[in-house]
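Form 7-S
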Amino acid sequence: MKRAFGVCLIFLGIGLILNSTLSFTGAVTLNLSNSGNYFLSVFGLTFLIGGLGILLTGSLEEELNPQGIKIIRSQRFRKDIKKQNRGKIDKAISEIGSGLGHEHPLTKEPRLHGKYTIKIGRGGRIVFSYDKNKSTAVLERYEPAHEY
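Output:
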């Protein structure tokens, strides 16, 4: 959603910049206006820079899964899932909070207290944590070999 909004701002900015500097007269003649509409040009440039800023900022990525739980992908998680089977990972993410996917809390080690995992295929696991009322899950890392 955030990415789509950024792209829309970029296109809107480009359109405003072009509209403020170009004008067509007749059927085939292009007239470059010297005076131009500087207000539209500045506004378009603001949209363009804002759209690029939205696309390039943020170390966390947010989305909602089918159960209405807000999913936040940490930077480490995004790095861990590079070159992995995205289809299986996305399917497991959609099962968080549904009772499917063998979701369970990690209780064996004190450092993992409050963390949960959900199964992805053979041995792969996503390690995540919930907020207090289980409305948000932060995906912390991906373990392809079932090692915590």
